[in-house]
Amino acid sequence: MTEEQRNLPAPAEKLTPPTPRLSSPAPIQTHGLTAERVAKIVSQSGSARMTALLGIAVVTLFVLVYAFYDQGLPGVAGSSRMEAAREEIYLDTVKRGYNLYQANCARCHGEQGQGGIGPVLNDQGKLLAHLSPSYLHNVLTVGGRYICGDANSLMGVWADSNGGPLNYREIEELIAWIRATKDDVIKVLDPATGEMVEVTGWRDAAYEPAADATPVPACWKDAFAVSPSPSPSGGEPTPMPTDTAGGTGGSYTIVAMGVKFDLVTLEVEANKTFTLVFDNQDAGIPHNVAIHEGTASAVGKELWQGAIFPGVATQTYDVPAFAAGNYSFICTVHPNMVGDLVVK
Ligand code: HEC
After folding, report:
1. Does the N terminus or the C terminus of the chain have fewer Cβ atoms within 10 A?
2. Residue 131 CA: which ligand 1 atom is closest?
3. For ligand 1, is residue 311 a contact (CB within 6 Å)?
4. What is the number of other CB atoms lying within 10 angstroms of the CB of residue 110?
5. Which CA distances in Å does 150 have to 234, 315, 332?
6. Is 119 in the pocket of ligand 1 (CB under 6 A)?
7. In the chain, what are the domains?
8. Residue nearest to ligand 1 atom 24, measured at CA
9. Which residue among 108, 203, 280 has the greatest number of ligand 1 atoms within 8 angstroms of its CB, and so is best to mutate?
10. In this predicted structure, what is the pLDDT of residue 87?
């Protein structure tokens, strides 16, 4: 065989047309399916479609259910998982604030914010109009000076940005607790019993002050300056419907330690004006004295009030004359400071 002959294609190959790509040779394509096989293919593709539809239905249902679970049912408050998570984080903040309050503030403002050495905090009118988050923030950052402008205020600085002991998160947590409402329920440890107890916030979100309510003053001490018988100078006697011909009955001293009177009964002469020396053993705590009807255990209507004094060591009041009888004397700043006044 010559070189040329070897390179030529075989005669048979030359005659067959090239097989088209991606198709079977004619004999295979024309190979018929049995009727049985055709029926099977049709039924199989039918159930495959059903399976796919079912799959899509299941996925759609899941997406819908999950969306409602996550976002909440329309119109149903609190049904959303995200809302619930947010609420949980909020209550956690309130709880931390509660613990900070009990540890740092309760000794002066009372466990329930009912007041003590420091003014009351749980008053609804005050929570509504006075103790706003920004006010609380300023008080805790600047310290007591911010409250009534008293440079010697007993209330310290709390924010560490000003040298206080609490960081900005703790300040926010405290504010969250003071502003928490009666709907906010937290579980806390009761140190007395060692058991978990439920505690709610102080604020009533629905509270509205009476139309004739006295507006909350900017400085809490001003709330005590209002009296049925105001005596702004601190000692101006208000005339009483008694015979004062008896003259002056001398001077008496009442001693206050912290937020308590050290004596419970004071005896004075009837129908004589007298001088009351308020010996404040803890200078810095503001007090005053008022005389009420009724005894210490059943304090009645106020008859006379001496002006509040900003925590000086001694304050002298000129008290009007009273008819013989049993009365009580009370510090209106700290209504739990009360004693019996016997006039005879
Ligand atoms: C040593 C006692 C004491 C402690 C502790 C204390 N306070 Fe006070 N607080 C006071 C006194 C006293 C005043 C009033 C100060 C003034 O008028 O100068 C006051 C005033 C306030 C006021 C302003 C009230 C108003 O009616 O405007 C707020 C708010 C307050 N304190 C919050 C707190 C918080 C929160 C804490 C804890 C981090 C705290 N206090 C700890 C004594 C205290």
Report:
1. N
2. 29
3. no
4. 18
5. 18, 18, 20
6. yes
7. 81-200 (1.10.760.10), 226-343 (2.60.40.420)
8. 119
9. 108
10. 92
Task: Report strand pairing: 248-257 vs 273-280.
Answer: parallel
Neighbours of 5 (CB within 10 A): 7
Q: Specify whether the backbone of 325 is left (phi greater than 0), alpha (psi in -120 to 50) or beta.
A: left
What's the 206 CA to ligand 1 centre distance in angstroms? 26
Half-sphere exposure for 283 (CA within 13 Å, toward CB): 5
Q: Is the pLDDT of residue 23 over 70?
A: no
Residue nearest to atom 7 of ligand 1 (CA): 155
CB 338 within 8 A of CB 295: no
142 lines ligand 1 (CB under 6 A): no
Tell me the Ramachandran region of residue 275: left when phi exceeds 0, alpha when psi lies from -120 to 50, beta otherwise. beta
**Ligand 1 atom nearest to CA at 136:** 29
The CA 73 to ligand 1 mean position distance, Å, reads: 44
Q: Angle, to 10 degrees, between the axis of helix 133-142 and the axis of helix 168-179?
A: 140
Please compute Rg for the chain using Cα positions. Answer: 43
CB atoms within 10 A of CB 174: 24
Q: Provide φ and ψ at 268, rounded to 5°.
A: -130, 165
Largest CA distance in the chain: 163
- Res. 4 pLDDT band, cuts 50 70 90: low
